[in-house]
Predict the structure.
Amino acid sequence: MARTTAEDDGAADAEDRLAGGADGGGPSGALAGLAQEMAAKSALARKDNGEIDLLAAAGGIRGIAESVFPGLVFLVVFTLTGNLPWSLGGSVAVAAVFLVARLVQGTPLTQALAGIAGVGLSAFLALKTGKAENFYTIGFFTNAAYIAAMALSIAVRWPVLGLLFGYARNEGVQWRKKRERLRAYSVATWIIVVVMAARLAVQLPLYFAGAIDALGAMRLLMGVPLYAFGLWIAWLVSRPVKAG
């Protein structure tokens, strides 16, 4: 039996509600606004060929250096000297140098401030307990928090990777009105969840074993490089399918 116009309108309204009513008011409208703000602040960008710019997504050369060098200095100094205060001091000093450089150049401080705060707190925990492995404790909690947040975003049908990739692809949040796009961005978000879960699976046993050298090395290898790889895979699997 053919549906009436009223029935068609009702079905369309139901579909819009299922998609979250992204352009409307209420909680969904607020989430759409939050998504737009997240996209504006993110470093996600596309190259001329349409692929994701992984270097920009990782914060550029400076962002990578700010993420990697404090931990690298800690690992190298501790491996060579076994002196915890020197290792922690060197790590904090490197983070402080990056912050001062941004202050002098007048560039945004957010990443540098977050970096020195994280390094400072990590150094405090390690120094307070006298255990070098506690330099990495904050990272475990951060990973766990990200895993929980991303899993929740999938459960409530607002997958984080959709919020970020959607604006990079000029989809906004309209992808939520298409089941296949919602599914694709959910899968993409699960990929990053797996990346972060893999960090915990590999690094926690090393932490409890007190294997500082191996833990530090894995922290570096499974940091920016693994994240960038996971982001690239997530970008590929969530690409819109072109109509034949």
